[in-house]
Target: Kinetochore protein Spc24
Amino acid sequence: MLLEEEPATLIRHTVKNFNIFPDKEAVSRVSESLSTLQQARDLRLREAENSLKKLSRQLNTLSSQHNELTGSHSSAAHASEIARLDTQKFRTAKAASDLEMETERLASQAADLAARLQELELQGDDGAPPGAADPVDDEVLLRLKVYRSLGIELERDEKDGEWSKAVIRNDRKGDVHVVNMDKKFSRFFYANYFWQTL
Model:
């Protein structure tokens, strides 16, 4: 009977009937593939970890720099400084414009005074022009010229011939003032008033 044979013989015959060599090779190939795949996964994992550590260090460095910059810089102080500088710029520009206008006015006045001085120098040592009849009239005319150059026109009273009214023109401001002169006020008072109006 079949069971009367030795077990070793039965096992040998059974093994011979099953061809397991191709299966063993397939298992071996699968095992090698799994090993190669595991090595590749480990390598990629190490590279990802190294890249993550590098990015983490960069993030820490940038965070530290950002905190330092935000700590040293105040947006409110910056806005306040910009507003102050803008105000200072506009004030400086206005002052420069005012000074330029004042310079033009003074230059014009200086040119008028220089021309008047030249006229006086040409009149001679005694201050009278050739053929002048009355030095007092020349003095009055000279004063009137100086007043007119400053923008002041004087008018005499028809009754007594005294100066009774002054018209003061300020071309720079575009103003005209009419002053009725009264004898109860001194010449010094009117001179100060004229200068303040100019």
About this structure: Residues 1-37 form one domain. The chain is about 70% helix and 10% strand.
